[in-house]
Amino acid sequence: MNWLLVVVAGAMVGAPLRHLTDRAVQARHDTVFPWGTFAVNVTGCLVLGLLSGAAAHGAAPPSLRLLLGTGLCGALTTYSTFSYETLRLAEDGARFLAAANVTAGVGAGLGAAFAGAALAQAVWA
Q1: Measured in whole angstroms, how far is the alpha carbon of residue 45 from the centre of its chain?
Q2: If you compute the radius of gyration of the chain from its CA atoms, what whole number of angstroms results?
Q3: Is the CB of residue 84 less than 8 Å from the CB of residue 21?
Q4: By C-alpha distance, which of 52, 45, 51 is closest to 105?
Q5: Do 7 and 71 touch, CB atoms closer than 8 A?
Q6: What does the pLDDT profile of the chain (125 residues) look like in tens digits?
Q7: In this structure, what are the phi and psi dihedrals at residue 30, rounded to the nearest 5 degrees?
Q8: End-to-end CA gap in the chain
Q9: Partner of 84 at 20 to 30 A CA spacing, among 33, 58, 98, 115?
């Protein structure tokens, strides 16, 4: 039961953080491109890469991985919204932006995860 509470605690921070960050980022851009979702997804990938790298070096106990990895990052990042926004862009005729969202989102997410893991390697190796 303790593991469930740890995951819920992380999600209680991640979900509102996702919404508030998405709104704040999107409000600063006058475009239909989903910059807010892009930002939270890339940030979540960075955090998860760092956490995974720390775990690989024994620096992140299971409770921290549940709190930050499953709870926080699980609620912060959103594949469903990414998919919906990409579909919406394509249906609205912004096919280039839809393709850019997929390409940039996946590329930046992977890059952020690798960067986080590399940072963890540098700190804990």
Answers
A1: 5
A2: 16
A3: no
A4: 45
A5: yes
A6: 789 999 999 999 999 999 999 999 999 999 999 999 999 999 999 999 999 999 999 999 999 999 999 999 999 999 999 999 999 999 999 999 999 999 999 999 999 999 999 999 999 98
A7: -100, 65
A8: 33
A9: 115
CA distance 10 to 70: 8
pTM greater than 0.85 (yes/no): yes
Q: Two tokens at 58?
A: 């024994």
User: What residue ranges in the chain does DSSP mark as E strands?
Assistant: none
> Residue 46 has which token pair?
């960075």
What the block records as the tokens of 40 is 């939270």
Place of tokens 């890339």: 42
Distance CA 40, CA 47 (A): 10
Structure-token pair, residue 35: 């910059």
- Identity of the amino acid at 34: P
Q: Which residues contact 60 (CB under 8 A, 6 or more apart)?
A: 51, 54
